[in-house]
Structure formats: C-alpha cells, structure tokens
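TEACHING EXERCISE
Course module: macromolecular assemblies
Task: Read the component lines below, then compare them to the predicted structure of the full complex.
Student: A.B.
Group: 4
Components provided:
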Amino acid sequence: MHFLQQATPETTQYMIAGYAVIFGVLALYLVSLIVRSRNLKRDMEVLQELEAAEAASDSKKQAG
Amino acid sequence: MDTKPRLLTILDIITGVLFAIAVGMVFFYAPLEATMGEVQRVFYFHVSSAWVGSLGFAVALVAGILYLVKGDRKWDVVEVAAVEISLVFFFITIASGYIWSALAWHMTVWQAMEPRLATAAIVELVYAAYMLLRQGIEDPDRRARFGAIYVILGFVTVPLTFLSIRLLRSIHPVLFGPGSPNAQGDMAMTSEMYTTFFFSLFVFSVLFVDLLWHRIRLGRLASQVEQLRLKVTH
Amino acid sequence: MKSDLPASDKAASLQVERVSAPSAFSGFLRAVAAIIWKDLAAELRSRELLSAMLIFALLVILIFSFALDLDARTRGTVTSGVLWVTFAFAGTLGLSRSMATEKDRGCLDGLLLAPVDRSAIYFGKAIGNLVFMLIVEAIVLPIYSILFGVNLFNLGVLLIVLLGSIGYAAVGTMLSAMAVQTRTRDVLLPILLFPLAIPVLIPAVKATEGFLTGAEMANIWPSINLLLAYDVIFIAVAFMLFDYVVEE
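Instructor-supplied answer key:
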C-alpha cells in the first residue's frame, strides 16, 4: 500500500463525457441497424407486390 | 426473408445481461484509481472497443480473402458487416481515447496522438475510403471483388503505418504528465481492476458476435432486395 | 535471327519458345517492356500527361510558398514536407490520367486479350507511372533548389525520392486500375490512395529531412528500412491481387 503523494484528481466530468460517447455511439448504431432493417423489409414487401403484379399482367398478356 | 432465429434472440438477451453486469462492475466494483481519478474507468471500455475493432478487421480480412478465393458472395456480406462494426468500434476507441488522454490530461491533440490511437484513426480513413469505393460501383460482383482487395491492402498497411507513426514520435519525444495513461505500466492495477478489465473484453467479444450476426442478416436482406429490384425494374 | 531461318525452322523455334520456361519469363519481360514503351512513346509525342503533372506540381509549390510564408529559415524545415506533398498530388494526377486513357481508348481490353500474364500489365503500367513520376521529380527538384535556395542535390535525398516513388507508384497503379472502373473515378483515387500511402509518406519525409539537415545515418536508417519494407511488401501483394482487379 503506497502512501499517496498527491490528492486524487477530480476527473469525473471526463469520465461522464467518455461514457456518454461510448453509450451514445453504441445506441446510435443499434438504432441505425433497426431503422435500416425496417426500411429494407418495407422495400421487400413493395417489390414483392410489384413482382406479383407483373407476373399477373404477364400471364394476362399471354392469355389474351 | 428469414425469420429471426431463436438462438439469436437468446444471444441478444445474454449480451444485454452481460453488458449490464459489465457496466455495473466498471462503476461499482472496480475501485477508484488513485493517480487518475474517475476518468480511469473509461479505460475498460476503451480497450474493449479497440479489441472489437481489431476483431472486426481480422474477420473482414479473412472474409475478403475467402471471397476472392471462392467467389461466394456470402463472404462479401460478412466482410461488409465486419468492416462496419469495426468502423463503429474504432470510432468509440478514438473518441474515448482522446477524452481520456487529451482532455483529462490537458494534452494537445499532437501529444495525445500516440501511435496506437493514430493508427486507429488511419484505419477509420481506410474504412471510409472502402465505403466510398463500394458506393461507386454498381455491379455487385465487382463491388465485392474490389472491396476485398481494398480490405487486404488496408490490412497490410496497418503494421507499417503503426511503425511509421512510432518512428515519427520517437524523434519528437513527448513529455508525459504525472500518472499519464500513456506512460505504460504506470497504472497499478488491483485484482478487481483486472477482473473488470478481462470481463469487459469478454462481454465486448460477445457483443461483437451478436452485432455481427445481426449485421450479416441485414446484409443478406439488402442483397435480396437489390436482386429483386433489378429483376422487377429491368 | 529468326527471319534468316527457313519457314519450318521458324515454326519450330516458335514452338520451342512457347514451351520452355525461361522463354515464358522472357516473354513476360518483353510484354512488360512493350507496355512501358507504348506509354513512353505516346507521352513523348503528346507530352500532355507530363506537362499537366509538372504544371500542377509547380502550382502546388507556389501555393505552399504563399500559404506557409516560406522565409529562408522555415524553408529548411518544411522543404521535405512540401516536396512530398507535391509529389503525392502530382503523382495522383499521373496515375489516374494514365489509367483513364488506357480504359477510354479501349487499350485495356486489348491488353487483356493478349496471351500474356495479367501481372505483366501491372508491372508495365506501374513502371511507366514510376518513370513519369521520376521525370516530374527530376524537374521539380532543381527548380525548387533554385527558387528557394535549398540544396537538394544530395544522394540521400535522391535515393529517398526513388524509394518513395516506387512504393507510391506500386500501390497507386493498383488502386487506379480499380478506381477507373468505378463511377467516381478521378475523385476516388486520392481517397483510396492517401490512407494507404501514409507508411510511404511519413518515412520519406523523415528521411528526406534527415538527409537535408545532415542528421546521423543511425537516425535515418529506420525510415529507409520502412520504405524498403513497404516497397517489397506492396509489390508482392499487388502482384498476387492484380488478376482480381482486371478479371471480368
């Protein structure tokens, strides 16, 4: 156990800043993943509808 | 479009719990470090982030090589996922490292830019260039091929970059403040600190796997959407 | 000489050439030489690439001399940095133009159809790019010496310029071959190149500064070693990967 020569510096605010960045960026990334995933699922639905519509009109053209 | 596997949901929960425990340990279990004060607590997640960044880079490299050798585009999906995660975590590394060394110790940016942090910053630039490269290519095969090549080239530069910056710094010696985090071996760690440190590394590794899995699923979905879009709007 | 032989012997000697290993290598060398010569000859006629690079380099130096307010004292310390930034920018210009004309004139496809190892194309283009960079550097160095009164005729400096240019051209050729196949082309090359060129630029600047300020060789050797390592490693990696850049 060493004898402290100087007082422990008061650096709490920097710790808060550091963890604000860490948690903040992590949270932003998670949100980004969720938003992108949702957008892609929506795009997928739209495209699948379009594909079905095209297939329907193609078969109608072939028949008529 | 695949439904979310149950294993992934379980992993999500485990990751969340582990992360909460790690945060608890950092703030309540690990003791206050005498020479640096509270800001030293940033160290645990700062190093763990650097670890995840490196893991991501290694995975990206392997995926890139596998894509070039096998031509299977699933490796490209893994590669992009790994690069993106590495980009996020190196950013966290740099920002937290800067706050820890520069702000807390009132060093100038120049003094705080020690070789490892500066190398991480350059890796970020390589990733940014990688993203721009991919954005400029429409053909998915060419995009994957060039991406893999750039990841490999980028990986090869890292050790050389690190050595170059260390060379640069050795000619301009930096004055270290008392108990500065850059003075290695200065921080005397108790057993609680070691436990917290290694547990953080472990938790972040689990977090990496969890995020990578999610990001790969996202990438697969994106690739399916792109293929379908081409088919429908031909 | 092949032309002196009767037709049947000529055919036989051609067959032998295609089969034996030493000839495959000399075929490789001939392909590389042919590509270098093609670029050099075209440039000798038009000189448009070299003049563009040269004017650009001089403009960069001019801007630096205004921006940094180079008086005699500060010039000594920043010379190394100014020179290498100039070479890096001018080099980028040469690299992207050289590949762009290749692609636009359809020469690249023609080269790819030739029965020659793909890496011959890489070496040919890389050496050609290197030669252009060296020519521009050979002109800029004396001009800088005269304009700013700094003696740059130092064997050590010339060695570093050579080693640094080799590494830069090695990576730059590879990346410009990729960049030219993208939508964003010219804009993309510097973005791709500069992060990867840092391990060339830092040691080059340090070593050049060392030679200019008469530092001890012991302090300069680490930089030279880094440059050598970079050159060797990247030429090897480019050789292995170039096939993937041009495969279609």
